[in-house]
Write a structure and sequence with these properties.
202 residues; alpha+beta; globular
């Protein structure tokens, strides 16, 4: 247990989840958002979404008709439909209101998932077949948020605001975020912890 103690640090090897869904869905989400954004494709232009992922991803995250927020987090099909429709997958896109939206449900039914043993858990191949007959493809080898493809400061800050603002309020969330980015300037870590307490619990 003491090997490398004080010399080897594992913190830089950690990643940050960009999306609030199961990590095995992230490579596919990266690919879908990249395609629809780069080609400016609207959801009404997509007829089929073909996804190739690792066998574990296909096994654990291919829930075809999620009915709850928790199930949506582990549904490649819902995350793909949401990514096409909104060009993002955040907490709102996994909520019950979006799960039952007719346009999202319709698109979700046109997602095809294939397990490919050649792909790792951070990989995905995505193909969008458009109503025009065009086909758009991309390969993701290492999704964003992994040590190999770390998030930048703006992406981390945006995720922080999305998750913390509903709890603390926008102003207090911004204060806490600034403290996190400048923690070395705080006189004591207790000053940071005090900022994390919701007003109702203070």
């Amino acid at each position: 247990l003491s090997t490398g103690l004080g010399e080897t640090w594992n913190l830089p090897s950690n990643g940050h989840k960009l999306y609030p869904s199961g990590s095995l869905t992230h490579p596919m989400i990266d690919g879908v958002i990249a395609l629809v954004t780069a080609e400016n494709v609207g959801p009404d232009e997509v007829s089929v979404i073909d996804i190739r992922v690792s066998p574990p991803a296909a096994r654990f995250t291919d829930l075809p008709r999620p009915a709850t927020r928790m199930q949506a987090k582990f549904s490649l099909r819902h995350c793909a439909a949401a990514a096409v429709t909104f060009r993002r997958v955040g907490t709102d896109e996994l909520g019950e209101a979006i799960l039952t939206r007719p346009d999202v449900v319709d698109l979700r039914e046109r997602v095809k998932v294939v397990a490919d043993p050649a792909l790792g858990k951070q990989d995905a191949d995505v193909e969008l077949v458009l109503t025009s007959g065009r086909t758009l493809t991309t390969e993701v080898r290492g999704n964003r948020g992994t040590p190999a493809a770390p998030l930048d400061d703006d992406e981390l800050s945006a995720k922080f605001r999305e998750l913390v603002s509903p709890v603390l309020g926008a102003e207090r969330a911004e204060t806490l975020l600034n403290s996190c980015w400048n923690i070395e300037e705080l006189p004591d870590v207790s000053a940071l912890l005090a900022q994390t307490v919701p007003l109702d619990d203070a």
